[in-house]
Design brief:
Strand content: 5-15%
Order of helices and strands: EHHEEHEHHEHEHHEHEHHHHEH
Radius of gyration: 23 Å
CATH topology of the largest domain: Rossmann fold
Structural class: alpha/beta
Shape: globular
Keywords: ATP-binding, Nucleotide-binding
Number of helices: 14
Organism: Neomoorella thermoacetica
Bound molecules: adenosine-5'-triphosphate, magnesium ion
Protein name: Stage V sporulation protein K
Largest sheet: 5 strands, parallel
GO molecular function: ATP binding; ATP hydrolysis activity
Helix content: 40-55%
Pfam families: AAA, AAA_lid_6
CATH architecture of the largest domain: 3-Layer(aba) Sandwich
Strand order of the largest sheet: 4-5-6-3-7
CATH superfamily of the largest domain: P-loop containing nucleotide triphosphate hydrolases
CATH class of the largest domain: Alpha Beta
Number of strands: 9
Length: about 325
């Protein structure tokens, strides 16, 4: 469940405080209106994401909170601060990185962060192989993230090896970093729901340091279809009605197989990108002029497994609808 704690917090405890006024991050006294427009642009991108209502609501709350505390401060009223470190729980492809990136941009525009960059790391980026190595690696990542968000994917893997594992040391460095850079760094720990809950259980001290917990549920078939349409529209493609029905069939099958492994929206992106390549292959040898409609429409056959030419090996992605023909990047 979504848990947000607001209310007066001790500033020494990794909390953002509204001490930094909105304008501080803006170059050369840029008019406030331009800043506002950029905040609205980020919010519009967030709104365009399919589903994720609790996530959107939390971000709206945080935005409102920050703005109102800044205005209160402007009026000489007491302004509360809040801890902005977060836990994202969800399966692969549920939008965690995308939302974190948007948050970085939003918090920059709101004056909570100075840069707003997202540094995504995993265990291997933080944990070293000998004594002292871990502290060095983890500090380097923290440094890169100052002014923005340090996003730790599969964070529970830091607790993997028990007491003697260097992962513990990485956790200690991170906790210290949260304290040292409390005014200008947000830490997000992400991972599968069950693993993250276990991680917090065995590290009870961490729970209170990450008061905002967000769930990224698996997408339903209609949501996955809507995501496909958004992705196609961004690329100026359209699904032909028969192709839409075929895509729905493919997605139903995948969802039945289990979300944890199918990659949710990432799977949709892979299917779409592959269909675009197959459409190109279908059109490229046509002798006559291609119409605008032909160039835009994804047909049912673009979603189906192609007959591979003799001698071409079945390899590459494990996408539904069959593997692609030796394209490298199917992400
Ligand atoms: N709600 C959504 N609406 C539209 N597109 C989405 C949505 N969620 C995810 N996507 C798209 O799906 C792809 C995968 O999303 P993202 O990388 O944010 O997922 P993730 O949860 O970080 O996955 P992983 O755990 O594999 O890193 C991206 O291209 C993203 O733009
Ligand atoms: Mg990700």
């Amino acid at each position: 469940m979504l848990r947000v704690k607001f209310g007066p917090q001790n500033n020494k405890n990794n909390s953002w405080s509204p001490a930094r006024p909105l304008q501080n991050n803006r170059a050369g006294g840029e008019p406030e209106q331009a800043g506002r427009r950029r905040v609205e642009a980020v919010m519009a991108e967030l709104d365009k994401m399919v589903g994720l209502e609790p996530v959107k609501n939390l971000i709206k709350e945080l935005r409102a909170f920050v703005e109102i505390q800044q205005r209160r401060r402007g009026e000489g009223l007491a302004a509360s601060s809040t801890v902005m470190h977060m836990i994202f729980k969800g399966n692969p492809g549920t939008g965690k990185s995308t939302v974190a990136r948007l948050m970085g941009r939003l918090f920059k525009e709101l004056g909570v962060l100075t840069q707003g960059q997202l540094i995504e790391v995993e265990r291997a980026d933080l944990v070293g192989e000998y004594i002292g190595h871990t502290a060095h690696k983890a500090r380097e990542q923290l440094k890169k993230a100052i002014g923005g968000i340090l996003f730790i994917d599969e964070a529970y893997s830091l607790a993997r090896g028990g007491e003697k594992d260097f992962g513990r040391e990485a956790i200690d460095v991170l906790v210290k970093g949260m304290e040292d850079y409390r005014d200008n760094l947000i830490l997000i720990l992400a991972g599968y729901r069950e693993e993250m809950e276990y991680f917090l259980e065995i590290n009870p001290g961490l729970r209170s340091r990450f008061p905002i917990q967000l769930e990224f549920p698996d997408y339903t078939v209609p949501e996955l279809l809507a995501i496909a349409r958004v992705m196609l529209a961004e690329r100026q493609y359209v699904l032909a009605p028969e192709a839409a029905a075929e895509l729905e069939k493919i997605l139903r099958r995948e969802v039945l197989l289990g979300h944890r492994y199918n990659g949710n929206a990432r799977m949709v992106r892979n299917i779409i990108e592959r269909a675009i390549r197959r459409q190109a292959l279908r059109l490229v040898n046509k002798k006559r002029n291609l119409s605008r409609r032909e160039l835009m429409y994804i047909e049912k056959e673009d979603l189906l497994r192609p007959d591979l030419p003799a001698g071409v090996k079945d390899e590459g992605s494990e996408l539904p609808g069959g593997p692609s023909v030796c394209y490298n990047n199917t992400r």
